[in-house]
Amino acid sequence: MTIDPAQAVSSDAHASASRPLVSLRGISKVFSNGTTALQNMSMDIRQGEFISLLGPSGCGKSTVLRIIAGLGDPSSGTIEWPTSNHDASGKALPEISFVFQEPTLMPWATVFNNVWLPLRLKGISKQAARDRVLEALEMVGLEKFAEAYPRELSGGMKMRVSIARALVTRPKLLLMDEPFAALDEITRFKLNNDLLHLWEKFGWTVIFVTHSVFESVYLSNRIVVMAARPGRVVNDMAVDAPYPRDEDFRTSSIYNDYCKDASLALHSAMGANDHL
Amino acid sequence: MSTVTPATAASAESAHAPAELDEPAPVFVARDSRTEQIVKILIPTVMLAALVALWAWYVKAYEVPHYILPSPWRVAESLIKDWGTLSAALLITLKITFTALGMALVGGVGLAILMSQSRWVELALYPYAVILQVTPIVAIAPLILIYAPTTQSALLICAWLVAFFPVLSNTTQGLKSTDHNLLNLFEMYGANRWQTLIHLKLPSALPYFLAGLRIAGGLALIAAVVAEFAAGSAGAQSGLAYRLLESQFRLNIPRLFAALILLSVTGVIIFAMTSVVSHLLLRKWHESALKREN
């Protein structure tokens, strides 16, 4: 029997797609002041997904993101990285990048040096990193601003630099913690579109924390709705609308339906024990 | 999947590239206008001339004896006539001031880094740094004079003790004030202690350190003078402070004024130097060195 190479490849691809990139198993986080930020959260994140964690403030969505990023350990539960490399001690070496709510740029360094940072910390010289840094800057449309300082840039441009810095390491998983929350709506829409284009082109997995129903529906193909006190998952819904999405999608009825669903899920979760 | 050639990648990028057109152009800080530059020099110069003229007029009009308040001309004359003695004394004072300042920078920054790396070191040493600072230098000077091998080294120790603390405390504060998100970022990218110190903590502590430097520069001179008063050193190795006292004993008031002016000018130059250093290091990025435009 001959094996059709095309079939072999596709079944292979299917196998890796079905294995989650990250598995959260019963993650809880209790802070030292006794607050339960997160209670028994389990979810699988599959390769190529664009997941939004949607919820009111205090629901632990940022805490999940930080735990996945390795910033702080969970109080209980485990995180598995089935497809990532592990070091000799069995510690996972996931290829992740993080975009914070603030641009979090070093004000004393030029845009180039800010984007170079992740590679610099890995010991890659400026010369060797040059092409990759400029490529990342080009992705976000800032190649002309390599020598500018962060203070010379607008809020949206600073966020782009922050995204370029996250992309320069070519991560498999991009964690974004309300990255556009502080921006005006016009800039936010624009960055939403740019982020979607890049995601479609490069096919990373994205976990995007937001408190905006509209943003989560527009961007993601899966929305995980969370509730506060204690932080937990209350709904896990798919957004089955095709990409590429553009301004037409923003005004379509399917978009509206999903927004309604997501809002309902959010409000029923908040209504249960939230009287604020 | 086919490989993306740079050309297609570029064209695909430009198709939906977030053009910077719709975002505000970067704001570059405008330079001082020409008139403002002139005004900046003109006003202080005119003010100085007016004050000297007032002084000269007062001495002449009220016939103030020169052993009470000498005229500006007598002071200038003394400055020229006694330049040999005064410049030698100035050199000594400068040597003590700058050596003490240099040692304070090395010691202050070094200890601040050490304390930022180890909580234990901080707990053990910081209280003593505070004690050394809050005890008046004039009160410790006699002891130092007994223990130090030479008067010069005693003066140096006194000046160092005073200049050291602002550098230490400011740099410590700066090292502790690093942006937490940036610290998280460095941790996430696997930065080691050394990399975090060099690439993050030290640059972000720089504005604090420079503020400490400006204070320490002035204090080093003050301490060099106060220590010399306390030590009462004399002879070839004596600095401006001793010449000042000596002129007072001999009622050579013009020379006293001349020494005083030299001290003031030295202080101003030190301040200007530290300000320039601070400006050069921060002008590109720190709020303190930027011109506000509204």
Automatic annotation (TrEMBL), chain B:
Domain ABC transmembrane type-1: from-to ranges: 90-274
Domain of life, source organism: Bacteria
Places the protein is found: Cell membrane
Statement: the UniProt record of this protein carries the keyword Cell division: no
UniProt entry keywords in alphabetical sequence: Cell membrane, Membrane, Transmembrane, Transmembrane helix, Transport
Keyword match Transmembrane: yes
Membrane topology: Multi-pass membrane protein
Pfam assignment, any one: BPD_transp_1
UniProt-listed PROSITE patterns: ABC_TM1 (PS50928)
Segments crossing the lipid bilayer: 41-59, 88-113, 125-148, 154-172, 208-236, 256-282
PANTHER family with a match to the protein in the record: ABC TRANSPORTER PERMEASE PROTEIN, ALKANE SULFONATE ABC TRANSPORTER-RELATED, MEMBRANE SUBUNIT
Family the entry assigns: Belongs to the binding-protein-dependent transport system permease family.
Protein known as: ABC transporter permease
